[in-house]
């Protein structure tokens, strides 16, 4: 079954929706907190500070501050990891501390579906310059919902395994993808967390990150940040696009104006082009995921059963939501980090830029601007200048340019 949902709203339809929405909003505004609305107001592209808005997108309603420094938000580095991945995570922490966190000392929280061992906790605590927290995931966030037909799920894993699809036979991989899609922010410990930066064991950052990305996102009103983007194996998500179109047909208000629909579809929403933000690197506001629009979307997908009957990944699920349900200018591309997650690497192609960021990587191995990468689509779609040289960065990201030229020690 095909669904044709106009992902870019027509002018007359936009006008009708605007008038209806304005009327409704006026009525609802009295006594209704702004933070309860579906999605926040939008801004112009680029480095537009929050202060130009009439109201901040989300208010910090949390009573407790995580950090003594009140300028900081309740932001944490966040890692889902197994005890067996201790060596990989310690290496990643050391690398990330060198290139970012030794300047900012953010807390680093770890999540696991099992208890963390004493050894794991001690080695990790020694490596992190901020504080650490070790969280055992509640079982209800890492298991089958009762509407899933377990026999059908078993049969699907067998078929995926026979077809030699990566992680095809793995039950835990499916729990992990569902957890990362719509569960992690429901962990009670994360209730007051504003932005998180997801970091996986085994990943590397081979360039210096010269600015506080959390504060940058807050200042410029960004809700989601990515670094690499590529195409998904279609066999893992055969029905995800149609399920998403069906959801949007039932919930047209979930579609954002000025969205990134062109990032995920090349044929006016007939099909998914498989581009997704590679979510092993992800910085985002939990408020986006906690918003009614995302929650309704996740719940709809969860009832479809594709996390278990297929092998839906959290990357395409997050990407479809971000691309269709947020204005494009809420999305930030974190450039030039020298990021590595097997098998792809980022490495700034420009010599001057690589030197300025003390990158330790080979530009010939760069995937970010490779033709198979989806990153160029994000830029061409919006007619944005690529941040691929110092000159370009100074034009489009002047505050980031300043931090490169005057690095914090
Ligand atoms: N605690 C725990 N973490 C897991 C499990 N499976 C995957 N992860 C974590 O989830 C993230 C993604 O898994 P990974 O194996 O890297 O998948 P890939 O990046 O898609 O190849 C990593 O941070 C893993 O450490 C699991 O069964 N338990
Ligand atoms: Mg991984």
Automatic annotation (TrEMBL):
GO terms for molecular function: alpha-1,2-mannosyltransferase activity. Gene3D superfamilies: Spore Coat Polysaccharide Biosynthesis Protein SpsA, Chain A. The keyword Zinc does not apply. It is found in: Membrane. Its main location: membrane. One of its GO terms (cellular component) is membrane. The active site is at 282 (nucleophile). Keywords: Glycosyltransferase, Signal-anchor, Transferase, Transmembrane. Belongs to the glycosyltransferase 15 family. PANTHER family: ALPHA-1,2 MANNOSYLTRANSFERASE KTR1. This is Alpha 1,2-mannosyltransferase 2.4.1. It comes from Zygosaccharomyces mellis. The lineage of its organism: Eukaryota, Fungi, Dikarya, Ascomycota, Saccharomycotina.
